[in-house]
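Hi support team,

I'm filing this because I wasn't sure whether my run with S-adenosylmethionine finished correctly. The job status page said complete, but I'd like someone to confirm that the output block is well-formed before I use it downstream. Pasting the exact inputs I used:
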Amino acid sequence: MPSPVLPSAFSNQMLQQLGNTDYEAFLQALSSPTPVSIRRNPFKLKNWSENSDGVKWNKEGIYLAERPVFTFDPRLHGGAYYVQEASSMLLSAVLPQVIDLNQPLKVLDLAAAPGGKSTLLAAAISEDSLLISNEVIKSRYQILRENLCKWGYPNVLCANQDSREFAPLQGQFDLVLLDAPCSGEGLFRKDPNAVNEWSPEHVQHCSARQRRILAEASPLLKPGGILIYCTCTYNEFENALNVAWSQDNLELSPIPLSFPAEWGVQARDFGYQCYPHHVQGEGFFIAAMRQEKHYTVLKSAPTKGFWKNAPRKNVDFLKKWVKSSAELLVLESPHGELAAVPQACADFFQELSPYLRRWDPVLELGALKHQDFIPAPALALSTVVHPNLPNTSLDLPTALKYLRKEVIELPDSSDGWSLVNYEGINLGWVKNIKGRVNNYFPKEWRIRMGGGV
Ligand code: SAM
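And here is everything the job wrote out:
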């Protein structure tokens, strides 16, 4: 693989950062293939095969020998795994070093799309914790929401706001993750566009924006709350200097982390850096800090809620659709759609959601229409869907037809609603009416790419 043509200012900066020998090794790594890695959903896939090549710092992550066309694996659409660059999975080794994950936590992923770290967080936190996963750009927000619905954890809300709009939630969170928009130097091997967009001016622009978001993120923490800051760049202006600035200006104190030496993660002055010549992954920086200041919780007028608590008598029929162990707070929209959050984190939900301007629950349940309940796609993919509902296994060609939202035939199915699955991973709903199968896969999520079988 040819090495990407690097801007000379970038090369000089890396030469200075790494020294001659290490810089040569760095350049060599850039001309070798990008590792392909995926992380399993622990709820949906019990394990990988025994001879899988595991990611050292994440027990759910593995490397693949080559990149398949993921679109044509129905298990990806069912949320059985997430395609995630391996260095980013280092977050899972940081979390237990900085916070007790068995406690009920209020967690905010402030810059979350497309959802790699939010899916990791959702699987790492306890069932009585609540994750708010936020993205400012509308189109990216839709992708984030889709990925989180597919991942299927119900204790997650998606928000679509600018970081500054979280100000009313000052002093609330145990953990805030800021995976900041950055110059993307760490992705030069994987994404040639990142090279074209790079310039010293762009780095300065990113650095200033990161400081702005850091200043907005820090007051959202409770006293003693944890801020994890990460980027996919090597740049000192975006990494070390911004962490140092946060410590000087935002009363955040550094938390030292430790990783086994054989992982190859490099300790730097103000955080930890993955380089592609030391780890099997791309460039990534991570630092953790503790909030020392006491920010009082603001009492601003809550926003008018779109979702209201649904009266219990109206939702008794849900017992058929939701597994009995799932205790849910059911919500109802003005249009009669139903959604839910687990009772275990309902208090957190009631405290935080009124102060969000634009948000959606991840666990949409469905809607009542002329006495029939139309189940939502998110319910089929969630961890709470009733395990005894009719469920039809599809072979690969039929599963791909289903995911393309084409007409499928299921000769032996009885009338009514049924889940469909591929290799035990739920994909969505169909409704059989007298031998005709109505495909309820959402059209926005359908496969548009040709080929596959
Ligand atoms: N954490 C994501 C993951 O693991 O998949 C990647 C996040 S990406 C590095 C940064 C994201 O932050 C982008 O999607 C960008 O649109 C979003 N963003 C940028 N400025 C923001 C702001 N002020 N508030 C919220 N999100 C922002």
